Amino acid sequence: MILADKIIELRKKAGWSQEELAEKLGVSRQSVSKWEGAQSTPDLNRILQMSKIFGVSTDYLLKDEISESEPIQEAKDSSDTPALHPVSMEEANDFLNDNNNYARKSAISIMLYILSPICMLFLGTAGETGTLPISEDLGSGIGLVILILIAAIATSIIVAASTKIKKYEYLENECIDTEYGVSGMVKEKRDAYEPHRVKHLVIGIALCIISVVPLITLISIRDTDMIGVAGVCIMLLICAFGCPLLVKNGIITGGFSKLLEEDDYKRENKIEKSDHFSLITSVYWSIALALYFGISLAEHNWGDSWVILVVAGLLYIGVDAFEKMLKK
Asked: CA 23, 267, 243: angle at the middle one, nearest 5?
């Protein structure tokens, strides 16, 4: 007797409809119908689930030569293993679409954050050097207002996007059980995205590296405050197009890894995961922002103190690596 026939027989003995069995297994009725029609085969996790709910051994289900009359054993209690969160094909597709949208909006937010201090730097220095007919305080004040407005827009974009993607947090924290065909679909989409990933990675890194060239060039030609600030503004402008590409790439590839439980989202990592160390990141950025605003207000110099945030961003690479080491 083949697996399809055994599923039909066991389901009917239990008095369940296809819908009821599908609900117990966390799959769609169409999946059960395909199994019973021998059009597809359930994955190992579904086999284990059926073994438990039907009270039969996995050997009975998988081996055609074993008949129902032979002694069967109930599956072992799996209460000591974490429950698997079922993920259907529809849910996986919805997540990938929402994750792509989240990646685009995150990239836009990062771009706006990087661009936000440009007006403040330029207007403040232009007022100080007399390049524009405004005072330094007026230029810095206008620039600060523009910075706050741009930062508010960027924050609203990322908060709205995060709210929509929040329902998929279980993919990061819980062990999942994907429906038959989901892994193949995700791998196919990941392979299709690979050329774009490589292109965006190369362009993003290249832009970040060459962003310092205008600054060095302008300063070497004429070392004045206005020229130096102009070089910094050009550097930020170039970074504003390079960094978002890297962020978008990371979020999209991370989405594939979440569904495939690969890289940082391996099942063993989720089981051993501790949220305690996530406090490190929160404390780190709280201190960085406190230093930025404290020094800026104390010195009344918003034009130079932004360097604190740039340095904090660079140092965070080491902090993030340290946090991951502690988790392991």
From this structure: 110
